[in-house]
Amino acid sequence: MSVLEQTAPVETAAEPIRVDHFVRGRLVEGGAVRHRSRDLGVDFATPQIDLNALVAPRSELPPLLDVPVSEIIDFLVEAGQRMDFETNPYLQAALEHTVKVNPLPRRVVENLFRRAKHFLTPEGLRCSIESSFLNPAALDRWVERTDMHGNRGALRAFPPRMVHMLAGNSPTSCISSIAQGALVKAVNVFKMPSSDPFTCVAMLRTMADVDPNHPVVRSMSAVYWRGGDERIEGTLYRPQYFDKIVAWGGGDAIKNVIKYLGPGIQMVSFDPKTSISMIGPEGFDPAVIDDVADAAATDVATMNQEACLASRFIFVEGDRAGVEAFCAKLQEKLGLDRETASAVAHPLPVEVRDEIEMLTLMGDDTKVWGKPDGRGLVILTDEPVDFHPSNKTANVVHVASLDAAVRHVNVATQTIGIYPPERKLALRDRLASAGAQRVVRLGGAAKHVMGGAHDGMLPLQRFVHWMSDEDA
């Protein structure tokens, strides 16, 4: 396999930001290939990708194959302890560069980086393993079994070879992907997003400082190429090199991967999702309406509404006066500074503003609180709007009952925040049947129970290659 020649069509006078790669334990520097970030149009330069160095031949056993999971967890925890923003120079440098290419404001990105050291805990890592595997020992060895007829065999969760298309809407989400890849002992290539081609390498460099020769480090590579580049993807996305493509991304990115799928190579897709909220009439009682509005705003504003779990549609049951009072309070709460949201997000696109203006002119029951200036906008309608609410915009939909709102749930609905939380029990089966993947109490969209499912699956279970040795 030869090294691909890459050219850079973008020419600008400004000096591009330098992006490093990390290939199987080794830092790779250089700026031969020029790119432009998707969100902010900023130029950056990367080394050329040497596919010979990036791809481990199948004749070479995975470096982590015989490393106990307990040792992998210890290593990840030690690396996590070094992800202290105050003392970690790689994170500090990643912040300075990431804010130039990522639409999230600096304060939010810095808050995420300051939380990074809490992402890799022994309790959380063990919980992920224990909730995903009936017998976690299968990750470390062949597990003997005997069926009801006395036939004997053995199973092993064999390390996969995976390409991870990392998400670009949260700069620290790569830490979870790195941990997952290590826990299943995979050979990993992380395709970094143009909105953050820095954090993943910062994490891997931190791990290399712990032990540059550790099998976890030698199992990891992080590089950037422009999504859809057939010269690279047409070579990498082949079953002789990789088993799985773990795809985080928009619809176009997912469709691009699909064309490479076939026998021997699978996609594990965390595709685009929409999250919603559901609020019963109990939420409009004057004694609680302020807290309920704050909880709803917390879910809407998460990552300035860039995250899949950020609520966009709020279905409400109750009298019109109470609903309108809630909308007014919600708009006020959307304008607050929060740990993962700024008081002012980017203004709404012009085409969305035009749609909102048409709604107010033509819809007798449509009311709007706020302006499309990124400080929080609430649109009250009787049916969900046709556009995708963003930039701290909430579409409050007045329904006869929360039961009636279930018809608006489908397989693209990820997280549903409910108030009062006691109503989850009566709704969750119907929501699951409609296609939803997660139900939480209102205000808890960004909070997680350790070891839970993601997008309707237990990812670690999907990642491994199950190998069976049978003696029937």
UniProtKB/TrEMBL annotation:
Which molecular function GO terms apply here? acyl-CoA dehydrogenase activity; long-chain-fatty-acyl-CoA reductase activity
Alphabetical GO biological process terms = bioluminescence
Tell me yes or no: is Thylakoid among this UniProt entry's keywords: no
Q: Which reaction does it catalyse?
A: a long-chain fatty aldehyde + NADP(+) + CoA = a long-chain fatty acyl-CoA + NADPH + H(+)
What Pfam families does the record point to? LuxC
Q: Which SUPFAM superfamilies match?
A: ALDH-like
The UniProt record lists the EC number as 1.2.1.50
Q: Which CDD domains match?
A: ALDH_Acyl-CoA-Red_LuxC
**Is Coiled coil a UniProt keyword of this protein?**
no
**Alphabetical keyword list:** NADP, Oxidoreductase
Question: So what family is this one in?
Answer: Belongs to the LuxC family.
**Protein name (database record):** Acyl-CoA reductase
